[in-house]
Amino acid sequence: MRLILVGPPGAGKGTQAGRLVEKYGIPQLSTGDMLRAAVAAKTPIGIKAKEVMDAGGLVSDEIVVGIIRDRIAEEDAQNGFILDGFPRTIAQAEALNEMLESNGLKLNGVLELRVDHSKLVDRIVKRAEDAKAAGQPVRKDDDPEVFKQRLEAYNRDTAVVVPFYEKTGLLSVIDGMQSIDEVTASVETILQGLDERV
Ligand code: AMP
Description:
This protein has helices at residues 13-24, 31-40, 44-54, 61-72, 90-102, 120-133, 144-158, 161-168, 180-197, and strands at residues 2-6, 28-30, 81-84, 109-114, 171-175. The protein is of the alpha/beta class.
C-alpha cells in the first residue's frame, strides 16, 4: 500500500504514520526525519538544509525529491510506504508521479488530516512541553515563532497539493481535530475502503 499523509505541521501526520507502520509493516518515509538526520550527521545535504529548516522554510524540491527517490528504491519500501511530509509542493507531487509511473507503481490514497489552524500553535506548544517532560529533545522548529513560519509555508506552498490530489480522485479528508484514537479509527475506515478498490 502506498499512501500519502498530508496536512499542516502539527496535524498529527507523524503520530498516525507511526500507527500505520505497526499495523501494516510498511515504512514511514518522513522527509522531515530524514532531513533532521542529515543535519545531525552534518552531511552536505544537512549543511545546506539546516538554515532553511531552522527558519521554518521549505528545503529545495531538488533536495527532497532526491532523498525520496533514493529512499523508495530501498528494499523495505518495495511493498509500500507511508509518505509523511512529502510532497509539500506541486513540483514534488509531479516528481513523485513520474517516479512511480516509471516503475509501474500507483498511489493507493492520499489522506488529508484537516485541522483548525488557529489551534495548531497551542498543539505545538504542548508537543514541545510533552517532549521536554519525557526527557526527549525539543525540536528547534517547534518554537512558536518558527512554527508560524512553517504554517505560512504550508498555506503558501503546500495547501495546493490537496486540490491536486482531489482532482485525481485519490483524496480522503479526515477530521484531524478528533482525538488521536478517533483519527486512527477514521484512517482505518478509509483504508478498508481503499483495499476493496485497489
Ligand atoms: P516536518 O518534520 O515534516 O515538519 O519537516 C520539518 C522541516 O523539514 C520543514 O519545516 C522543512 O523545512 C523541511 N522539510 C520536510 N519535508 C520537506 C519537503 N517535502 N519539502 C521541503 N522541505 C521539507
